[in-house]
Design goal:
alpha/beta, Rossmann fold, ten-stranded mixed sheet, two-stranded antiparallel sheet, 8 helices, globular, binds S-adenosylmethionine
């Protein structure tokens, strides 16, 4: 899709967000070496043809690789790329274009730091003859180096009431590290939790699917970019979403004091993102050659 060049920057008390209507393969060239984190959800293969361009699953890997160089160049050496994506059932079986794409990116130098799972707490109801309801999506954490910026303390969670219950009944075995009774080799030391208020989360994020329409058919939950921005982007850093849609990543970045660059090649979604930042991000118009509000 050829898009007119529209650009709007908004600001809140702490930071700015720039929304650009264009093809991210071209737009990112102006920001080389500036980004701390790319977090994004690309168009899913063959999905949502009615709404925006997408590609056949067989062609997805080659298509996605056209973004490899712009993504690599826009990131700082210790930057990260988080890809929220899901494969698709084609003729009754899971197509593996997501795995092929991640392997192809690894061949081009991306380190696969971890695979996170977004567990959907309210998945679509339905019946499929050979499958159950689909309740999760991938969030791949890729990076240019094996030691990208990483701040786990920023995503610590309250330790939760299960620990209090468990601690009240500490037995002798719990007071020192030991292997479980069946000799599985998994040592545990429950007493280490005494006095702790927070714990590191796991790499499974349990978040509800966004039900409310945000003027875009595939909005991810705000908590998803919030989590990864806290974890992978330093304060004051730059977050990029090259498939920005309704601008969810920009909202998260605004609320966390990170600068953001949002790119979408569809003028309608560009405008939706600007409107959302103004309406939900406590932001005001800073400048722009695009319309401030559609
Ligand atoms: C899955 S949606 C992203 C939704 C977004 N995470 C949200 O919460 O609203 C993918 C977006 O990528 C955009 N897109 C597709 N190809 C693009 C390209 N070459 N450059 C920029 N945006 C593109 C589509 O218009 C679509 O809005």
């Amino acid at each position: 899709m050829t898009a007119p060049h529209l650009e709007t920057t908004v600001r809140n008390l702490y930071t700015t967000s720039t929304v650009i209507c264009g093809d991210s393969r071209e737009v990112l060239g102006d920001f080389e070496g500036q980004a701390d984190l790319i977090i994004t959800s690309p168009p899913y293969a063959d999905a949502r043809h009615k709404h925006y361009d997408s590609v056949h699953p067989d062609a997805f890997t080659d298509w996605f690789l056209t973004f490899h160089e712009p993504f690599w160049k826009v990131l700082k050496p210790n930057g990260s790329l988080v890809l929220n994506i899901k494969d698709k059932v084609v003729n009754g079986v899971r197509h593996r274009f997501v795995w092929h794409t991640i392997e192809a990116l690894a061949d081009r130098g991306w380190f696969a730091i971890d695979d996170y799972i977004w567990h959907k707490t309210n998945p679509m109801p339905g019946y499929w003859p050979t499958r159950l309801r689909d309740g999760w999506e991938y969030c791949f954490h890729l990076a240019k180096s094996k030691r990208p910026y990483f701040n786990p303390d920023a995503v610590r969670q309250p330790i939760g009431s299960w620990v209090e219950t468990r601690l009240r009944s500490l037995g002798e075995n719990d007071l020192s590290r030991h292997n479980s009774a069946n000799a599985s080799g998994f040592g545990r030391d429950i007493s280490r939790w005494v006095g702790k208020q927070t714990v590191l989360p796991t790499n499974v994020l349990s978040l509800a699917v966004v039900g409310k329409n945000k003027g875009h058919p595939a909005v991810f939950p705000l908590d998803l970019p919030l989590f990864f921005i806290k974890l992978l982007c330093p304060e004051g850093g730059l977050v990029v979403d090259p498939f920005a849609g309704s601008g969810t990543t920009g909202l998260a970045a605004l609320s966390l004091g990170r600068r953001s660059l949002l790119v979408d090649n569809n003028p309608q979604y560009y405008q939706e993102a600007v409107n959302r930042l103004l309406d939900e991000g406590a932001a005001v118009l800073l400048d722009g050659n695009g319309s401030g509000r559609g």
